[in-house]
Amino acid sequence: MRIITLDEKTRENILADLLKRDPNNYSSYAGTVQEIVDAVKEKKDEALFAYTERFDKAHVDASNVRVTEEEIKEAMDQVDPKLLEVMKTSMANIRAYHEMQIRRSWFDSKPDGTLLGQKITALERVGVYVPGGKAAYPSSVLMNIIPAKVAGVDKIVMVTPPGKDGKVNPVTLTAAHLAGADEVYRVGGAQAVAALAFGTESIPRVNKIVGPGNIFVALAKKAVYGHVSIDSIAGPSEVTVLADEGADPRFAAADLLSQAEHDELASAILVTTSRELAEKVSEEVDRFVEKLSRKEILEKSLENYGYILVADSMDAAVDTVNAIAPEHLEILTANPFETMTKIRNAGAIFLGEYSSEPLGDYYAGPNHVLPTNGTAKFFSPLGVDDFIKKSSIVYYSREALEKAYKDIAAFAEAEHLTAHANSVRVRFED
């Protein structure tokens, strides 16, 4: 990996380079995606099934688009029992973590005759997009569905692309069943996102769409935002490792590669105060790459967006991490808990040498759907809050309003909104 001495100029250049990975930069695909979305909105099932045959090479129609209970049972029988047990343990951890996020409605009643509050209501219908085809991402299924179930969503509708044989990956189906999906449909791509957003004869419209996907899925979610809510426009995966001279170079190298293997746009960055550690990590990375299965992707990913940055102080290193605002941050310092208090921007923070990033991807419980491309400066991980909405509650007795109505009317008239003023005055006319 390239080793760079960190200064203000190099930091600016690297940040600019990382921003090239933003899905919003792929405007050349936007027209195609909009055509698909518009076609499904207008022609519904007809367009949905045609695009599925065109892109996924699978024949789907109204009679088979929804996955049946028999198919789910058949899928579960195909899954390795050991993997099934691991998934159940992971589910329990994810559920326990997200149950700590549950919000309650609250009401504050005062002796003066006023009551204010906030009513928490779960979303009625949520759509979950899960990448499919040959690949299986059961962890993504669990991470998207379980928080919705914990929040109390009434209906969870999952869509995922079929293979050429028209079938859904059995591990994906098993995860969906275990997590609590109410309906599963064998469609994917921008056309599936449009179906969830606008509804078709076969697929019901939802209130919100969550879940990862390729650039077409990301842009489709962007195109339907406003008609429905979405979680985020996810970019390529990324990890930053913050380390001092005491870190284990082999651990740091392994953790960098755990994200670099996702795809050629994935980012893996080590920020350290030690030139010696930087050189050792670079050597360990080279050794690992030679023997790992996704060598070609790893090499391109590191060539494109892999960096080892050597800072002259821990404060400078922390400032750089906060500027990057990484999706995943690992802290390998002498006192990671103290270092963590200085971190302002990161999607998920992993503390110490035995808390590597895959722990969060699969098992520990916190959500692995995280803000990317610097959006950790203002976005949070997917959680229960993404599946609820809040309503303000206001109650005033006659006596309480009588004390306030003249002030309200004066405020309204200052804005030349006389009907507003009249609305409170009319209650106290002689």
Textual characterization of the structure:
- It is globular, with a radius of gyration of 25 Å.
- The chain is of the alpha/beta class and 430 residues long.
- It starts with a strand and ends in a 5-residue tail after the last helix.
- The chain has helices spanning 8-19, 30-43, 45-56, 69-78, 81-99, 138-151, 170-179, 189-198, 215-224, 249-260, 275-291, 295-305, 314-324, 336-340, 357-362, 398-414, 418-425; strands at 3-5, 106-109, 114-122, 125-129, 155-159, 183-185, 208-210, 229-230, 238-243, 267-272, 306-310, 328-332, 348-351, 388-396.
- The longest helix has 19 residues, at 81-99.
List keywords for this structure.
five-stranded parallel sheet, six-stranded parallel sheet, 430 residues, alpha/beta, 17 helices
